[in-house]
Amino acid sequence: MKLIWIIAFALSASLLLSADLDEADRLYEEGRYQEAAEIYAVYAAKNDAPPDIAYGAACCFALTGKPDKAFESMYRCIDLGWLDNVWPNEDSDLESLRGKPEWKNVMARIEENRAKLLERLPHSHQRENPIALPTPSFKSETSIEEALLNRRSIRQYTDASLSLSEVSQLLWAAYGVTKRVAPGKLRGGLKTAPSAGALYPLELYLAAWKVEGLDPGFYLYNPDGHVLYPVKAGDFHKELGEACYDQSYVTDAPASIIWSAIVERTTSKYGSRGRERYVPMDLGHSAENVYLQVQSMGMGTVAIGAFDDLKLQLLVPMTRPEEPLYVMPLGKVE
Questions:
Q1: What is the pTM assigned to this prediction?
Q2: Which of 183, 235, 287, 326 has its C-alpha lying 20 to 30 A from 305's C-alpha?
Q3: How far apart are CA 40 and CA 72, in angstroms?
Q4: Rounded distance, CA 157 to CA 330, Å?
Q5: What is the DSSP track for 101-118?
Q6: CB-based contacts of 151: which residues, under 8 Å, 6+ apart?
Q7: Are 94 and 58 in contact (CB under 8 A)?
Q8: For residue 45, how many other CB atoms are within 10 A of its CB?
Q9: Helix (H/G/I), strand (E/B), else coil: 202
Q10: For residue 223, is the peptide bond before it cis, meaning its omega torsion is within 30 degrees of 0?
């Protein structure tokens, strides 16, 4: 009986919290910032509060001309786990704070926390227990012209699982080897996507949740040998969706391809032009291949560049030299 009471109390408290925060959101939308700030601040004081509640309080205090309380809330937000180093510098609600000396300290604290987390990333992956992928097909009934004509960004997929052959085909299209060269060169050989200077800076991961023959988890694709290496076991489809700012088609897809780049591979030869131009070009070549391949297979995908870089890096996890670039959910369509 006591356990039932505790559960009932917890559910009641959760509903009250949700109702109060809904009220704060409503007050914010109505421009009643002081009233909203007071509600946000109360709940931001809880140790298990999401950081965005304290962030909301900071915004409201900034909008009411109370910078001291706004900065106090920003530090509380950071203490609760806020790691976004981009949005605070773009959010118009915080414009009045950015010209103040204390703002540099706020951003420095965020960067410090981000750096500590990035230090946890591995320098390299242990490439063990390779999973051989089925040999891809080099012919289809769909012409390149038909694929180009009908290619679209698709955001709704069926619940059907993908086969290992299907993900094999898509990974090969993205970055597979088409001509082998001398051992140890070009990371296996020339690939389906061109690369500036044949430097191939991209790394590809498969996020597999419903793929026949694969346990749920993240896998690193190695074009040299056309194999997958397990990186992290477990079903993290919800976490991947959250890292992509809760885009439901990422959460719901049975699998996704994730691109990153070791930019230094390109900048070592081309300098800043490599980062600003050549690596993005390489990404575009590879991603377009996937668009055309899914079209020929009666499947769908959409290119996603909106995600929290740090969350994605830590979730996979990527290695320290890598920078995340793209996520493309994969699924079958009606």
A1: 0.84
A2: 235
A3: 13
A4: 8
A5: THHHHHHHHHHHHHHHHH
A6: 291, 292, 295
A7: yes
A8: 12
A9: strand
A10: no
Tens-digit pLDDT profile for residues 228-277: 999 999 999 999 999 999 999 999 999 999 999 999 999 999 999 999 99
Residue labelled with tokens 């949740």: 209
Beta bridge partners of 110: none
How many angstroms separate the CA atoms of 316 and 90, rounded? 27
C-alpha dist (Å) from residue 231 to 16, 320, 323? 41, 14, 17
d(CA 272, CA 153): 31
Which distant-in-sequence residues (6+ apart) come within 8 Å of 100 by Cβ? 67, 71
Token pair recorded at residue 166: 């299907």
Give the Å distances, CA to CA, from 101 to 98, 108, 272, 308: 8, 12, 31, 27
Token pair 């204390």 is found at: 102
Tokens of 133: 């992928």
List 239's β-bridge partners, or say none.
none
Both tokens of 200, joined, read 């191939």
Q: Any idea which residue has 């006591």 for tokens?
A: 2
Number of alpha helices (DSSP H) and beta strands (DSSP E) in the chain: 14, 9
